[in-house]
Specification:
By secondary structure, this protein is mainly alpha-helical. The chain has 3 domains: 15-106 and 197-223, Fumarase/aspartase (N-terminal domain) (Fumarase C, Chain B, domain 1, Orthogonal Bundle); 110-191 and 227-359, Fumarase/aspartase (Central domain) (Fumarase C, Chain A, domain 2), CATH 1.20.200.10; 360-437, Ribonucleotide Reductase Protein R1, domain 1, CATH 1.10.40. Helices cover 63% and strands 4% of the residues. A two-stranded antiparallel sheet has the order 1-2. Strand 1 (149-154) and strand 2 (157-163) form a beta hairpin.
Length: 448
Amino acid sequence: MTVSAFENPLLSGLFGDAELADLLCAEAQVDRMIAVEAALARAQGRTGVIPVRAAQEISDALGLCSVAPADLTRGTASAGVPVPALVAALRGQIGGEAAHWLHWGATSQDIVDCATVLQLRDVLAVIEIRLSGVIDALQAASQQHAGQLMAARTRSQIATPITFGLRIARWAQPLIAIMGELPALRARLLRVQFGGASGANTAVAPHGAAISAALAEELGLADSPSWHGDRSAMIALSAWLGQIGAALGKLGRDLILMGRSEAGEALAGAGGGSSTMPQKANPVQAEAIVSLGGFLAAQQGAMVMAASPAEERDGALWGLEWLVLPNMLLATGAALRHAVDLAETLRARPENMAAMLDLGNGTVWAEALSFALMAHMPRAEAQACMKQAIAQARTTGTGLQQALAALPEVRRLSIDWAVWTSPETVAEPSRRMAQSVFADWRPDHEKT
């Protein structure tokens, strides 16, 4: 029986992520902990802390060892962490004198944190690929719709004409910034953890620093002082995931609004049906992204709380991290999975976009026409004329441009209204702005 929405067969298509689940599952965690124990033995053999022969025997044996997570359940419930039960099981499989040297001078948190970092390294690689895929697809769509006019909305109201290409670029803009933060996040996160019982490596003194450096090399991680009580890197990771959720949440919300029946300005994804209303195509994937973004935002407080452990090590708040972080990673993966599909299938409905521009009898052009007037009269007078023309357009159904041109104060002016309302005039600033959003976007495979 599965309760989690990330694994529940009824909901996993919306909120789950099979690829990331494979990297984060209990089996993967046990495998990584075994790999850390093997690397620790090799590091201690290299530094002369344990016999070289024992280190080699441990490394060779652990390469063949297998421990089922279910076999660690009782031990974890007893110790509050799976490592003691795991080490006992591994010693039984290694046998002989070499087993004596397994887990030498380490503490459970060293093993779990190193294993977690190895899992995070793999997960971040997947997230990076998907995030790049979303940005690439949005860039292509923005270029495709660079000249497609639509009505911008500010505070939910129709504002001025922009291009669909610019709106798409705005979806990509925070994602590009988020991608730019990834190298620094990796540098902060992918560090070795080796501090021993209280973080001072007392049991292996004076070799602690040498072991840590050798272990980091074995695992392909950066060397670091022990960080049992410093969970700031985990907060940085959760905040980064939250940023992805927020950015994708905007994309999802905008697509939901653009796809409303009365607007229908853009569509993406396959759409979902209704049990009783066959005319509907519900924005299921966009809705799922918004839900996942909300979930990610809600978890931030828990991760901040988990980052205030008491004294040198704290089992209670460490456990809170276990409860929250894996689900945040799964939620991020699922949101990106949906976003890639939506970005790649995004399609405009130009006729409906044009209809939205025509709502209000052309009042969407009020800003442009106001500036046209201000080129010929004082600002206050131009604003007064515009207010009068808008009122007339709304009352009589006359187009705003016609109502404005008919005013006595305006009729005498020689204004080429078409210059101010031509599609090219309006589209060009949006095109330049969209291009500037992507100016620094260079995926790794395109770098020289």
